[in-house]
What we know:
It is built from nine helices and ten strands. By secondary structure, it is an alpha/beta fold.
Amino acid sequence: xxxxxxxxxxxxxxxxxxxxxxxxxxxxxxxxxxxxxxxxxxxxxxxxxxxxxxxxxxxxxxxxxxxxxxxxxxxxxxxxxxxxxxxxxxxxxxxxxxxxxxxxxxxxxxxxxxxxxxxxxxxxxxxxxxxxxxxxxxxxxxxxxxxxxxxxxxxxxxxxxxxxxxxxxxxxxxxxxxxxxxxxxxxxxxxxxxxxxxxxxxxxxxxxxxxxxxxxxxxxxxxxxxxxxxxxxxxxxxxxxxxxxxxxxxxx
Length: 252
């Protein structure tokens, strides 16, 4: 039987009269890369924001490892094992790679607000920091200022900060946005490596990348789930073709 790590049950979010997510019920299996695709305004980022605690649902439930996390704040959700990256790079430009990951690593401690005092003395924080930098491919860039790095490397660093919190589940919101082809390939390879030990929920508009790495896809349109399935099932879906991927027209 499949091992469900996260499940949503009729999840809804409204902004006044705008329904951003409407009765979204999905299951995410442990160890898979599950991509969420759809046109702009489909509700994808709102859905991820609900999972991470950045937004509170108006209705419905979110279960992580069987625990109801629907009303928990983002810091508590992070401590339970859910990491999050954002569409726009969210790092400390004036800090080194090591310092950025250090701040993320110590956020798992009860003394997390004592940034560079008692927490710095703890070996476990340093070990998590160093391990995260290696995992994200920046093990040799510990002393490099974030501001001196390329955009692609900054995205890697953001993923490293997420890894420093030792999450089971990674929420990745357009990790390839704004990248050139070479940088995109590097991040795709990074995501494939991370998938060996983590579950990934991925929002991405690069369909070539999605089809190359995803195990399952969910298509959202107008805040609702249109269809969920394997890559082959989604490629062959007439409803998806009409709503999002497009239908080839016959040449007259």
